[in-house]
Specification:
Elements lengths: L2 E9 L4 E8 L4 E8 L1 H16 L5 E4 L12 E4 L7 E9 L9 E9 H14 L7 E3 L5
Antiparallel strand pairs: 1-2, 1-8, 2-3, 4-5, 5-6, 6-7
Helix pairs in contact: 1-2
Length: 140
């Protein structure tokens, strides 16, 4: 089943490191990225606003995809259809080249309700223990 999983792998006083795993029937890729509480709160607000008007798309990016920065992850959430289905285009950086041009870009399919539950968990994820995981489609 398609899924997006966030796992908290590290923290300090001003940011956390998240490992994202994006799974579709065609591809699975993962990467790590750093994020502050302010940026995470911004993403939570963006997803909440999308849920309130799901006829529009939403682009979320965790950091710059160019320059000498840590890897950036992005999601482009397409408008929801009448059945509640959504396509989420994930863009995962493959950290094997200095110029940061190797990327995996593909769709993860989900539902508006699943995105809403993921966002509810995301709102408190920053304060969770190292090793904590949240999932677009929980399996347990």
């Amino acid at each position: 089943m398609d899924n997006i999983i966030f796992e908290k792998v590290w923290e300090d006083e001003c940011m956390i490191e998240i490992k994202v795993i994006a799974i579709s029937k065609y591809a699975t890729a993962n990467q790590k990225f750093y994020i502050t509480i302010e940026k995470l709160d911004e993403i939570v607000t963006q997803i909440k606003n999308y849920k309130d008007d799901f006829t529009k798309s939403l682009y979320i990016e965790t950091g710059s995809k160019t320059g000498k920065y840590t890897p950036a992850f992005s999601m482009y959430i397409m408008p929801c259809d009448m059945l509640g289905k959504i396509n989420i285009e994930v863009d995962i950086e493959i950290d094997d080249i200095r110029n940061r041009t190797h990327r995996c870009i593909y769709y993860v399919q989900s539902y508006l309700g699943s995105l809403e539950m993921f966002n509810n968990n995301l709102s408190t994820f920053y304060y969770s223990d190292i090793g904590a995981r949240i999932s677009l489609h929980p399996t347990d």
